[in-house]
Design brief:
elongated, three-stranded parallel sheet, 12 strands, 19 helices, mainly alpha, Arc Repressor Mutant, subunit A, about 475 residues, Rossmann fold, Helicase, Ruva Protein, domain 3, three-stranded antiparallel sheet
Length: about 475
């Protein structure tokens, strides 16, 4: 097999869609699995949709996700992405080659005429496509008019036969040529369309596999015809399944967050999002769901990519993020957690106490954006009790437990975790309560909950005075 060369070619139109991240990831995994190359190319020929800062943001997202790329034009010792807007001369030269070979022609139709044509076609339930009016203008007349009139350049699509896409995921897909438009290759502003720039760049960059979203499948016969018009070898195509909402509609911002930046702001870790996105349309053929990036590289093949749309399950993403929160190194967890506490205005006034709070809630934390809810008990002066906690507090022996606990606490000026263990032994001995009957009332009294952070970690944060106050509050109930 010759060198595998793939590309990620986003348009700089705003935020990074999670579908774009999946496309970047699958290209990355395919390239790394085959020891090939991943090229980053910015398809910015549609200047009306260009958003300032979108490229920089996209590169930042790729870096955050751990997806690097391999080559690009030299930028003073550092390679960056290719920009199609900086390659216009190439596209003009190739369009002229097509015109000279009678594979393309200039079109002088005004927008008003084209709109009228479309309306008539729609009224007669005909396919909406160019009617070929300028296709048969004599060459010498066309060249003269090109110098004087505004025009676009269109590809001469064969009117007979079919164009076949042998897709690596979907198999054989055939398109009737008489239903394909004479697509515009060069716009009147001198910029190439996506179709032309895409094909020329993929050829010149020696792209072996085009891996992209299913929405590009209808454009693929146009691209194959362009390859044939140039006399070039066609790369292999693989069209990834759509991303779907839980109701199986196409994933869109109307039903929830679709931008990678949204999930960064929710406190989703990069390895969690990458792991989750990798499973949107791909599986290894077993039940494993947690993968490192290295494991994904080793396991990834296009043969295991599904045709059917992939449901974006936010609950699963949050569960997976919780797994990574509990399994990353504690040093990194605390570093990220402290940054989030600062951003959210959650500060005990002491760094060690903040770290102890983070340690206490770690087993129950799924996203860092949940910190206000998960840490609320540590910043409260009084407790709000869950109903189940109240039931434990009001049990017959609880009053005796709380009274004895307060008495035992008097012997300790300061309270360590070991001290509290001794206190509880004293309470157990004097009340005869043990196990759940002893610990659940105490947990309910100190935290207001029957489940939550481990009590020793809570004690580290609360200290003796706060524990004493909460026990008294429960005793009054």
């Amino acid at each position: 097999m010759s060198e595998i060369r793939v590309r990620f070619a986003p348009s700089p139109t705003g935020f990074v869609h999670v579908g774009s991240l999946r496309t970047a990831l699958f290209n990355y995994l395919f390239a790394r699995h085959h020891h090939g190359k991943l090229i980053l190319r910015i398809e910015d020929t549609d200047q009306t949709r260009y958003v300032q800062g979108a490229v920089e943001n996209m590169i930042k997202v790729l870096s955050w996700a751990g997806l690097d790329y391999d080559e690009g034009p030299d930028r003073g010792g550092n390679f960056g992405p290719y920009y199609q807007s900086q390659r216009l001369d190439l596209y003009h030269d190739h369009v002229q080659r097509l015109i000279d070979a009678d594979q393309a022609y200039p079109c002088f139709c005004s927008e008003e005429r084209l709109q009228s044509m479309r309306e008539k076609q729609a009224a007669h339930n005909l396919p909406i496509m160019y009617d070929g009016t300028c296709r048969h203008i004599p060459t010498d007349v066309a060249r003269k008019r090109m110098r004087e009139e505004s025009h676009v350049v269109r590809l001469k699509v064969p009117s007979q036969g079919e164009t076949v896409v042998d897709d690596l995921i979907r198999g054989r897909v055939a398109f009737r040529n008489n239903l394909l438009d004479d697509q515009v290759l060069l716009k009147s502003d001198g910029y190439p369309t996506y179709h032309l720039a895409n094909v020329v760049d993929d050829h010149l960059m020696q792209i072996s596999h085009v891996i992209r979203g299913e929405e590009w499948l209808p454009s693929t016969p146009k691209h194959i015809l362009l390859y044939q018009a140039f006399g070039w070898h066609t790369p292999q195509f693989a069209h990834l399944p759509l991303l779907l909402n839980p109701d199986r509609s196409k994933l869109s911002k109307r039903q929830g967050d679709v931008a990678v930046e949204d999930y960064q702001q929710k406190g989703i870790l990069p390895e969690a999002l990458i792991n989750f996105v990798a499973l949107l349309g791909w599986n290894r053929g077993d039940d494993q769901e947690i993968f490192t990036l290295e494991e994904l590289v080793q396991s990834f093949t296009l043969k295991r990519v599904n045709k059917a749309g992939a449901v974006f399950d936010l609950h699963k993403l949050e569960w997976m993020n919780g797994y990574y929160i509990r399994h990353i190194k504690e040093e990194r967890y605390l570093q990220i957690g402290l940054q989030w506490m600062g951003k959210l205005g959650l500060d005990s006034g002491n760094r060690q106490t903040n770290e102890n709070i983070l340690k206490a809630i770690r087993p129950a934390l799924n996203t860092f954006a949940d910190l206000p809810e998960k840490t609320a008990m540590f910043f409260a002066d009084t407790l709000n009790y869950e109903e189940e906690a109240l039931q434990w507090i009001r049990k017959e022996k609880s009053k005796e437990i709380f009274s004895r606990l307060l008495k035992e606490l008097e012997s300790y000026p300061q309270l360590t975790v070991n001290d509290f263990g001794s206190v509880m032994k004293g309470v157990q001995k004097s009340t005869g309560c043990k196990g759940q009957d002893l610990w659940m009332p105490v947990r309910a009294a100190i935290t207001g909950m029957t489940h939550g952070p481990e009590l020793p970690l809570v004690l580290l944060v609360f200290g003796k005075n706060k524990i004493t106050r909460f026990i008294k509050q429960a005793l009054n109930l």
